[in-house]
């Protein structure tokens, strides 16, 4: 299939450049129309400005000047009629002066306008009458002020002719201004027609050129896209190996070049897929056999892990019981420690009490000594009293009896004090002995408390170690359960992989059937490419080696759990 030959005057441009050219022409026409329109509007505005400022305003000023001149003449006539009435005459002259001031201001405005050509000449004719007219007005005013009876004659004979001459000059000036305004309007109409004709011509030419370029460009684009569409439909029908000709370097040429590259690559890919489908089928068969062996091995490993998990559960229960016993022993040891500490405190209190008793006994001994000394002194005093009573004779007999009784009491007190002193001494000795024994008991209890503390610490360490062992066993049990679960999942995945391998084998056959849909022109389909044959042999050899290794491997025996730990999951156990 050959692309139709297209030749354009602008074929050197890309599609983007051609579109830009058409858009540029349209933009240029739009810009030109805008420029022409703006220029026309500017000229029209300038004509309107001239007509307003130079004609209308100037004409209005001249008309006002004519009107005020006539009014001042009429006021002078009225002043002449009331010449015999001074008050009315004065009022009319004041009105005349006001009108003359307005006339003077209007003359200044007219003189300020630009007057050229016939207008300037006519204005000069008007200005030449101004001197005589103002002189006549002055004579008329002087006559009125002097109450001259001939004032009205001056108005009729001198002022009126000059006024008529002056008004005639102003009327001619107004006519010339009107003529100039009509000429300006005619020029504006002529300019508008010329600009309209130019705009229409430019628009027609620009649209014609743009339409021509757009038609040529659309024709080129449509024909090229139609050709590309035919090629794409044939590729979608499975027909490959087209001889696509590319004769331009623009975007459409690049599109056709991309179709050509796609056709060539699809042809090569289809050939490679055809030759690789057989290799995929062979590899799928070997993968299926290997997955079957791996499924059996995984099931045996799952059974071993189930038994290991059961043993770990029993071990966990035993370790937990030991941990509970150790915790109970720790609590008992803590209770014994607390009781020993309380016993030590009681012994310490007993030692303190014995010391206080010893101190009290010492004080009692001192008091008894004091009593003994008092009894001795009393005995001496009673002896002295007896001697004195003997000296007194009969008169001192009663006093001698009393002294004898006092002496007996003193002797009895001294004897009792000696007995109490002996008892207190014996009590002090026993108290000292008891205090010594209590001190020894306190030291023994302190040793017991220290020993109980050490036992408590050891039991606490044993309990902590038991708890750590229990936690570790729980983690091990959890890990074994996870391994069991993962093994079960692996078994399910292996079965799924086996099913997927069988499905892949079936899909490889379907792929080969589907690839046969493509027809590569000018190529042999029976002989596989050398590279495809080499890849097929390589894939088959690698798959056979892998699954031979899988078939040779055996699961761990149930009677040897230590070896099972060091198999496939050794790395996970070491990491744990």
UniProtKB/TrEMBL annotation:
<dbReference type="InterPro" id="IPR004089">
    <property type="entry name" value="MCPsignal_dom"/>
</dbReference>
<dbReference type="InterPro" id="IPR004090">
    <property type="entry name" value="Chemotax_Me-accpt_rcpt"/>
</dbReference>
<dbReference type="GO" id="GO:0006935">
    <property type="term" value="P:chemotaxis"/>
</dbReference>
<comment type="similarity">
    <text>Belongs to the methyl-accepting chemotaxis (MCP) protein family.</text>
</comment>
<keyword id="KW-0472">Membrane</keyword>
<dbReference type="Pfam" id="PF00015">
    <property type="entry name" value="MCPsignal"/>
</dbReference>
<feature type="region of interest" description="Disordered">
    <location>
        <begin position="285"/>
        <end position="311"/>
    </location>
</feature>
<dbReference type="Pfam" id="PF00672">
    <property type="entry name" value="HAMP"/>
</dbReference>
<keyword id="KW-1133">Transmembrane helix</keyword>
<keyword id="KW-0488">Methylation</keyword>
<keyword id="KW-0807">Transducer</keyword>
<keyword id="KW-0675">Receptor</keyword>
<feature type="region of interest" description="Disordered">
    <location>
        <begin position="551"/>
        <end position="576"/>
    </location>
</feature>
<dbReference type="InterPro" id="IPR051310">
    <property type="entry name" value="MCP_chemotaxis"/>
</dbReference>
<dbReference type="GO" id="GO:0005886">
    <property type="term" value="C:plasma membrane"/>
</dbReference>
<keyword id="KW-0812">Transmembrane</keyword>
<feature type="domain" description="Methyl-accepting transducer">
    <location>
        <begin position="276"/>
        <end position="505"/>
    </location>
</feature>
<feature type="transmembrane region" description="Helical">
    <location>
        <begin position="198"/>
        <end position="217"/>
    </location>
</feature>
<dbReference type="GO" id="GO:0007165">
    <property type="term" value="P:signal transduction"/>
</dbReference>
<feature type="compositionally biased region" description="Low complexity">
    <location>
        <begin position="302"/>
        <end position="311"/>
    </location>
</feature>
<dbReference type="InterPro" id="IPR024478">
    <property type="entry name" value="HlyB_4HB_MCP"/>
</dbReference>
<keyword id="KW-0175">Coiled coil</keyword>
<dbReference type="InterPro" id="IPR000727">
    <property type="entry name" value="T_SNARE_dom"/>
</dbReference>
<dbReference type="GO" id="GO:0004888">
    <property type="term" value="F:transmembrane signaling receptor activity"/>
</dbReference>
<dbReference type="Pfam" id="PF12729">
    <property type="entry name" value="4HB_MCP_1"/>
</dbReference>
<feature type="coiled-coil region">
    <location>
        <begin position="89"/>
        <end position="116"/>
    </location>
</feature>
<protein>
    <submittedName>
        <fullName>Methyl-accepting chemotaxis protein-1 (Serine sensor receptor)</fullName>
    </submittedName>
</protein>
<feature type="domain" description="T-SNARE coiled-coil homology">
    <location>
        <begin position="435"/>
        <end position="497"/>
    </location>
</feature>
<feature type="coiled-coil region">
    <location>
        <begin position="483"/>
        <end position="514"/>
    </location>
</feature>
<feature type="domain" description="HAMP">
    <location>
        <begin position="219"/>
        <end position="271"/>
    </location>
</feature>
<dbReference type="InterPro" id="IPR003660">
    <property type="entry name" value="HAMP_dom"/>
</dbReference>
């Amino acid at each position: 299939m050959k692309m139709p030959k297209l030749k354009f005057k602008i074929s050197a441009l890309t599609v983007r450049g051609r579109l830009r050219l058409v858009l540029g022409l349209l933009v240029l026409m739009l810009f030109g129309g805008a420029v022409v329109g703006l220029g026309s509007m500017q000229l029209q505005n300038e004509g309107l400005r001239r007509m307003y400022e130079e004609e209308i305003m100037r004409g209005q000023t001249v008309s006002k000047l004519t009107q005020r001149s006539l009014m001042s003449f009429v006021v002078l006539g009225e002043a002449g009629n009331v010449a015999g009435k001074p008050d009315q005459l004065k009022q009319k002259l004041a009105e005349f002066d006001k009108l003359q001031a307005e006339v003077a201001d209007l003359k200044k405005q007219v003189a300020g306008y630009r007057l050229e050509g016939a207008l300037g000449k006519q204005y000069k004719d008007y200005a030449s009458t101004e001197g005589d007219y103002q002189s006549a007005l002055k004579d008329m005013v002087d006559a009125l002020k002097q109450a001259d009876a001939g004032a009205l004659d001056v108005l009729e004979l001198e002022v009126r002719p000059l006024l008529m001459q002056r008004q005639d000059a102003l009327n001619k000036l107004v006519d010339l201004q009107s003529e100039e305004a009509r000429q300006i309007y005619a020029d504006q109409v002529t300019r508008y027609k010329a600009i309209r004709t130019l705009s229409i011509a430019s628009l027609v030419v620009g649209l014609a050129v743009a339409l021509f370029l757009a038609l040529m460009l659309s024709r080129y684009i449509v024909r090229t896209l139609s050709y590309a569409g035919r090629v794409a439909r044939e590729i979608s029908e499975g027909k490959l190996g087209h001889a696509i000709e590319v004769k331009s370097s623009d975007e459409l040429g690049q599109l056709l070049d991309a179709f050509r590259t796609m056709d060539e690559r699809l042809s090569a890919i289809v050939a490679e897929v055809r030759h690789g489908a057989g290799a995929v089928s062979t590899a799928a068969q070997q993968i299926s056999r290997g997955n079957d062996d791996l499924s059996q091995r995984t099931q045996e490993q799952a059974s071993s892990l189930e038994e290991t998990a059961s043993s770990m559960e029993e071990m966990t229960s035993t370790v937990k019981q030991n941990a509970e016993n150790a915790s109970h022993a720790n609590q008992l040891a803590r209770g014994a420690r607390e009781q020993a500490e309380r016993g030590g405190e009681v012994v310490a209190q007993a030692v303190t009490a014995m010391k206080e008793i010893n101190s009290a006994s010492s004080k009692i001994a001192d008091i008894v000594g004091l009593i003994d000394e008092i009894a001795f002194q009393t005995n001496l005093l009673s002896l002295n009293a007896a001697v004195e009573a003997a000296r007194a004779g009969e008169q001192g007999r009663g006093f001698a009896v009393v002294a004898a009784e006092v002496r007996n009491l003193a002797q009895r007190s001294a004897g009792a004090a000696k007995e109490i002193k002996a008892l207190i001494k014996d009590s002090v000795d026993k108290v000292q002995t008891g205090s010594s024994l209590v001190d020894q008991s306190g030291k023994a209890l302190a040793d017991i408390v220290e020993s109980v503390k050490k036992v408590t610490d050891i039991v606490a360490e044993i309990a902590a170690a038991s708890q750590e062992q229990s936690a570790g066993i729980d983690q091990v049990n959890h890990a074994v359960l996870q391994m069991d679960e993962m093994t079960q999942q692996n078994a399910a995945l292996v079965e799924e992989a086996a099913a997927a391998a069988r499905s892949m084998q079936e899909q490889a056959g379907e792929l080969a059937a589907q690839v046969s849909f493509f027809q590569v022109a000018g190529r042999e389909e029976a002989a596989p490419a050398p590279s495809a044959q080499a890849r097929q042999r390589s894939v088959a050899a690698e798959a056979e080696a892998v699954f031979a290794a899988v078939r040779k491997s055996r699961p761990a025996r149930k009677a040897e759990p230590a070896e099972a730990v060091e198999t496939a999951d050794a790395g996970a156990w070491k990491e744990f």
